[in-house]
Every structure is written in C-alpha cells, then in structure tokens.
Amino acid sequence: MTQTKHNEVATIETSESGLRELHMAWEDPMLAVFGLMQLSREELLERLRSGDLPQPPLARLLNIAVVDAEPGRMVLSLTPDERHVNFLGVVGGGVAGAVLDIATWGAVHLSLEDKSLVTTVNMNTNLVRRITHGQGPLYAIATAVHIGRTTCTAEARLVDDADKIYATASATFVRMSVG
C-alpha cells in the first residue's frame, strides 16, 4: 500500500517499505528572471502577491511561499517536513539560511527603483533554536536596511505563529545593472 500526501507544490509518496518519494513540477526558471527584468516594481509586487509569477525551483523544492511583499519588506513561509531534516533529525541550518536569504533578497530587490538586479555577496545567519519537521509554518520576515548605489543590506528573522525566533540573518548584496 502506498500513502500519498499532497501540498501546494509537491506530492510525497510513502511505499509499504517506508521509502518516501517527492514528486514536483516547476516552470522554466528563466521565466521568473525575464519577469524580474521586464516588470515595473508595482507589476512585480502584484504578481508576487497574486502568485502569478513562476516560483523558482528552489522555493518549490523547499516548500517556500510568498506571504507578503512590499518595497523594502518581504515575508515568506516555510512549512518544515521530512525533506528538510538532516542526520540529527532536525531541520538543517542550510534550510533556515536559504529561506532567510530569499527573503532578504526580496526585500532589497523590491526597494530598487531602477532595473538593476542584486545578488548576495555575504550573509550571516544565527540559529537560535532547533527547528523540527511537522511543527507548523515558520515565517521569514525581511526588511531592507540600506539601498546604496553599489551595495545593499537587509535583515531578517525566522519566527513561528507566536513570534518565537528560530533564526536571524543579515545580508549584503551587490547591485548589477541589466542591459
């Protein structure tokens, strides 16, 4: 007998032997890149909020979704499950780092008034308490701190519904002109 569990982005099947399989589909990630370069900030915000912008494969794989987006701020959700667990049986620090990186990047990118893009050049992540699979959704709340001509910075917290902190991050980005 095979059990099937569905979420918004993937199907997890468990066979009689206990082996799990994750099945997911994604769109061409270049569609998202093209969207970033072609849309105004207001159009991008609307597409992010409505879910009309194709989700990057990494976000789909890690079960990360946009909760809110506005200039200088991004909120993402992460619902930990077995796919996120490391050898110690807890959610790996890299998963926390990834969701915080995506959120800080979004907060900075949505602050830009021109068509430049940003990429992470440095990130410091502090894991405050362990994250377990099945504990419910966590939220990466990121805020842009500095938007400069060549570099930008942002900070983020990973919290639960009760605003308990699981991780924090600060990140630095470099601006790249498009064209």
Map the helices and strands.
Blueprint: E1 3-6, E2 10-14, E3 20-24, H1 29-38, H2 41-50, H3 57-62, E4 64-70, E5 73-78, H4 93-109, E6 117-127, E7 138-147, E8 151-159, E9 165-176
Antiparallel strand pairs: 1-2, 2-3, 4-5, 5-7, 6-9, 7-8, 8-9
Biggest sheet, open or closed, and with what strands and sense?
A: 6 strands, antiparallel
C-alpha termini separation: 54 Å
DSSP helical segment count:
4
- Given the helix and strand composition, which structural class is it? alpha+beta
- In round numbers, the mean pLDDT is 88
DSSP strand (E) fraction? 35-45%
Q: pLDDT under 50 segments (min length 5)?
A: none
Tell me the helix content. 10-25%
User: How do the strands line up in the largest sheet?
Assistant: 4-5-7-8-9-6
Structure, explained:
The protein has four helices and nine strands; from the N terminus they run βββαααββαββββ. With 179 residues, the protein is of the alpha+beta class. The strands form two sheets. It has a six-stranded antiparallel sheet. A hairpin with a 5-residue loop joins strand 2 (10-14) and strand 3. The longest helix is centred in the middle third of the chain and has 17 residues, at 93-109. The mean pLDDT is 88.
Short description:
This protein has 179 residues and is of the alpha+beta class. 24% of the residues lie in helices and 39% in strands.
